[in-house]
Amino acid sequence: MTARTKAPAKRNGRRKRGDDRAVEPRREKRRPPPAPASKQNRRTKPKAAPAEPVPRAPKVPLRARALVWRERARSAWARTRRPLWVAARVGLVLVVVAGAVAVGRLVERHVRTSPAFATKTIALEGAERLGREEVLEAAGLAPGQNVFDMAPEDAQARLVAHPWIAEAVVRRRLPDTFEVSVREHRAVAVLALGRAEDEGDALYLVGEDGTVFKRVTEGDPLDLPVITGIDRARFSRDRAWRASVLVEIVALLSDYRGAGLWRREPIGEVHVGPDDGLSLYVGEDATQIRLGRGPFRQKLRRLRRVLDRLDEREASPAYVLLDNVRRPDRVTVRLR
Q1: Three-state DSSP class for 249?
Q2: What is the pLDDT of residue 126?
Q3: Does the pLDDT at position 301 exceed 70?
Q4: Which residues of 159-169 are buried (b: 16+ CB within 10 A; e: fewer)?
Q5: pTM, 2 dp
Q6: Angle at 297 between CA 295 and CA 298, to 5 degrees
Q7: How confident is the model at residue 319 (pLDDT cuts 50, 70, 90)?
Q8: Structural contact between residues 117 and 172, judged by C-beta atoms closer than 8 angstroms
Q9: CA nearest 126: which of 173, 167, 172?
Q10: How far is the C-alpha of 278 from the C-alpha of 249, rounded, in Å?
Q11: Is 119 exposed, middle or buried, given 0-12, 13-18 or 19+ CB atoms closer than 10 A?
């Protein structure tokens, strides 16, 4: 066994109880204290280079400065010249327009108040049924009125709105004249449309163009053929049928006159059948002439020959039938 060696005891050293080994304290290495901040900065901060002197700008001669200013002025003028020119022209136009408006108002005031433009002459053409005063009142024209108070277009529209006037033309002749030309409706038949039983039929005037232009009132002509048999509901609903049947009736009346039958046997009634066929009631005895559908000229010629033969025999027909579709050349006559 190896003998344990005891470490020499140091001065002031102590041993712990129960411990045969002496513990020697460790010695720590002391570091040098940090250098002051100022010294560190001095060591680490590099020295700045000396500043170089700033060169001075060379002096520009006054003449060169003047040339630069002139070029700048030219450039600015080139940029603003066109807008200024446009603004000047717009301003001039506005001034001219304002002046024209002012002059126009002065002229308008003068012509509307000057006695030189008072209406002195109103020439009227085409009025047959209507009187002169009624036409002028409908047009809104009167002698002594300023010619600019009523425009020709307005007077024309007022005339066309009158139930008896079909067309109208109004012209203004300065300084004091109006020319008025009208075309009145010419009534060729009276249309009787069925109404309620307690109200009776409503009567309307039919023109030579096949249009219904007004309702019958006091003073309207009634010595015209009466159109009957037209259903009021269908007449109001079906415009195409209404126009066709009225045009056909007007054409029949014209062909009847052309055949020379009107003076002999004037038409008192035109009846429209359920199949749209037409029948005439003519003469004082209301003889029935059943024509059917058109065309009517050939049928009316046959009717005239038949009536001539009956006159030779001094016979009076009760009815004449000309509506045979299978034998259009056959005429059926029943005597009274």
Answers
A1: helix
A2: 93
A3: yes
A4: beebebbbebe
A5: 0.66
A6: 95
A7: very high
A8: no
A9: 167
A10: 8
A11: buried
